Amino acid sequence: MVMTTSASLPLYDIVVVGGGINGIGIANDAAGRGLSVFLCEKDDFASHTSSASSKLIHGGLRYLEHYEFRLVREALAEREVLMAKAPHLVRPLRFILPYQAHLRSEWLIRSGLFLYDHLGKRKKLTASKKITFDSASPLKSEISKGFEYADCTVDDARLVIINAIQAREKGAELVTHTECLSAEIVDDVWLITLQHRQVPYQIRAKVLINATGPWVESFLKSQLKQHSPYKIRHIQGSHLIVAKLYEDNHAYILQNEDGRIVFVIPYLNDFSLIGTTDQVYLDDLNLVNITQQEISYLLDVVNRHFKTVLTRADIIQTYSGVRPLCDDESDQPSAITRDYTLALTMVSEVAPLLSVFGGKLTTYRKLAGSALEQLKLFFPDMTPSWTEYEPLPGGEYFKGQDKLVNAIQLRIKGIASELAKRWATSYGTRVWKLLQGVYSEEDFGIYFGHGLYQLEVDYLVKVEWVESADDVLWRRTKLGFRFNQNEILVLQDYLISLVVGEQGKIA
């Protein structure tokens, strides 16, 4: 491997390793404060933990039982911020908590919901209330009452992508399929060796940020030869996707005998999302799959509550992720804090390393702000925090989903309402960039099936770092549930020709 002299290599203020929500959130915040930023991700953005969540922006009602009041307060406030920043992606959702006296007392639930209503700044979401169920309820007849409260749902992977787009628009350079092989201090800056699809190269940074999620501890030890200041507990969370379990648009939060809770959430119009689990994970972080025990666990919880009985044959899809939780020596995985810890290490007198331990999707923006606050000493000319009020891409001038859907239908006569709704939800007002110069379905190009056209695929390659069919179907559009293997191969062949031809990269 031939390298140029260190002094001639590009020098960035910050290099971030890790393209999940926390790494990209930090890169976005830093770029908006006038810093030069480079971010690398070894796979696709949001390809691991950040696309394997329960798709919620929430305060974490159950965290109150573990006295995590600061975390819950911060998360509840962030619901309001993110609803304003990305109203097309972050949408209110009502949750029903069936009451079962032998699991939690009514006064305990009422007290928790009172705190949940009042700990954070609740402006747009309605307060909790007690409810009763009649014969039309999808719940079993012996469950006669419960409680209702509000949180939000989100497309987790797209939240990562729109932060990446904004970071790039603020001047950051972000690359996928690029692994950080090593980093060391040379001439008082970080000399970082990267590898993109077997091709190595080097860059330099004044500050290195380790936002590798589940790999945070191993990255410190293997690539940086540094001691980790904290231990990480890898906790697997798995989900099932089944055909829609009930007709109403509420989510359900189900209590279980072990003290944990399981969500049942309306998903993509035709499905129900069931999860999550909490179990220690000790295997390969690149090969996380649901276990038979987790499947049984989730099915058992749902079947104890709903009239419709689910079996393994009803499972359409499963997915699993590993949460990198900072080890607080809790006995049970579900009791481990979901809060984040930032560790600033001075590897040399002038070259800091910042490592991110833990965190949750809802509080990524606060985590990023805290990270930049820790770096103020090294960048005294850095501009102030800016992310609270500036919309994320697609949230600019958003006046509501229905109005945007109507505008799309006026622009493209005869467009299917389902497609117009999906575009409005996925892209928000950035749909007009997707439709630039397009006025009829004849301009959509090749039809790959299930509402996916060449027009959109080309846009995703050009704007959203897409290189493979998985990128399109699972992390950008969620159409993977509908595509068969032959349709996937046709899409993949097209992407190979497009990416090779236009970007000089092999998908």
From TrEMBL:
Top-rank taxon, per record: Bacteria
Chain ranges of the Alpha-glycerophosphate oxidase C-terminal domain: 386-482
Matching Gene3D superfamilies: 6.10.250.1890, Alpha-glycerophosphate oxidase, cap domain, D-Amino Acid Oxidase, subunit A, domain 2, FAD/NAD(P)-binding domain
InterPro entries for the chain: DAO_C, DAO_C_sf, FAD-dep_OxRdtase, FAD/NAD-bd_sf, G3P_DH_FAD-dep
Enzyme type, top EC level: oxidoreductase
Pfam families reported in the protein's UniProt record: DAO, DAO_C
An annotated GO BP: glycerol-3-phosphate catabolic process
Every FAD dependent oxidoreductase domain range: 13-329
EC number from the UniProt entry: 1.1.99.5
Cofactor(s) of this protein: FAD
Molecular function terms from GO: glycerol-3-phosphate dehydrogenase (quinone) activity
PROSITE patterns in UniProt: FAD_G3PDH_2
Keywords tagged on the record: FAD, Flavoprotein, Oxidoreductase
Family from the record: Belongs to the FAD-dependent glycerol-3-phosphate dehydrogenase family.
Protein name: Glycerol-3-phosphate dehydrogenase
